[in-house]
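Regression test case RT-17, inverse folding.

Input:
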């Protein structure tokens, strides 16, 4: 059993501000930092730091060497990462005094995924292996179809949410990991429990994990009922990689054979450590830091 994360790699430009900019407003940032990031990179690091063997597939541009190096230092296998003539993906992130963030995303090399590269990346994976996906790269529907033909267990974090996601072959997804915004996009419902119930009805074959920030998380599948997980208290510095950390550690728990409640608890502990630190990739904890 192996884990393939087919996902984005971004350069994150993080600006500390007292409050998010409003339309037409200009203000000075308190500081600027540059980090390795991207939902794909972050989730690969979280799974690897949690103890899994993780292969990352995705593309970077000429300036993306430090993204690959970051994954290598986090014990992720980078042999499948490709090169693109496009610049590496990047984000401009505002982080306010409450630790909240808003993110502007430029796809770059992440949108240069083609079918030949997909085939090459999936070639050595098959039944019993896991595929992790987000929505920051091109041709996600094709990756889903090809992976399911090969018998992979498919986990999807539908972030960033777009209306286009609803046209993906979602019946082939074995597990969804999403937050309240994404759940509302799928269902039109703001109440998390109602949204979770609607998702369980629509995708009865799939596990649904709904993260709720400082309110914890919910799990459901079909008619099996809801499992609740509390959030661990933390001094919030930066929430940028919290969801990715939760996802990576939850996947690690399940792959290792933990029960759903045990995996949820592990993920919640990891997310609490993550939000107490600045940055994205750098804020993800190692397994030995868990209680």
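Golden output:
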């Amino acid at each position: 059993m192996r884990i393939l994360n087919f996902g984005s790699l971004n350069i994150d430009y993080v600006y500390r501000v007292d409050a998010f900019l409003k339309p037409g407003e200009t203000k000075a940032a308190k500081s600027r930092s540059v980090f390795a990031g991207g939902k794909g990179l972050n989730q690969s690091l979280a799974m690897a730091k949690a103890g899994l063997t993780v292969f990352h597939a995705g593309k970077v541009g000429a300036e993306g060497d430090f993204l690959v190096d970051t994954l290598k230092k986090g014990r992720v296998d980078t042999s499948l990462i490709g090169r693109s003539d496009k610049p590496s993906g990047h984000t401009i992130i505002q982080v306010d005094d409450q630790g909240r963030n808003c993110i502007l995303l430029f796809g770059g090399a992440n949108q240069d995924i083609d079918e030949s590269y997909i085939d090459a990346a999936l070639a050595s994976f098959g039944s019993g292996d896991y595929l992790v996906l987000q929505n920051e790269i091109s041709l996600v529907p094709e990756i889903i179809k090809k992976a399911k033909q090969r018998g992979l267990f498919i986990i999807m974090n539908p972030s960033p949410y777009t209306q286009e996601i609803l046209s993906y072959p979602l019946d082939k997804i074995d597990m969804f990991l999403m937050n309240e915004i994404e759940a509302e996009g799928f269902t039109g419902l703001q109440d998390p429990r109602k949204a979770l119930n609607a998702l369980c009805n629509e995708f009865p074959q799939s596990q649904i994990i709904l993260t709720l920030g400082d309110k914890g998380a919910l799990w459901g599948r079909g008619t099996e009922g809801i499992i609740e997980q509390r959030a661990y208290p933390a001094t919030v510095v930066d929430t940028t990689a919290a969801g990715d950390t939760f996802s990576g550690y939850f996947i690690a728990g399940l792959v290792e054979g933990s029960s759903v409640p045990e995996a949820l608890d592990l993920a919640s502990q990891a997310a609490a450590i993550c939000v107490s630190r600045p940055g994205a990739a750098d804020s993800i904890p190692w397994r030995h830091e868990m209680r």
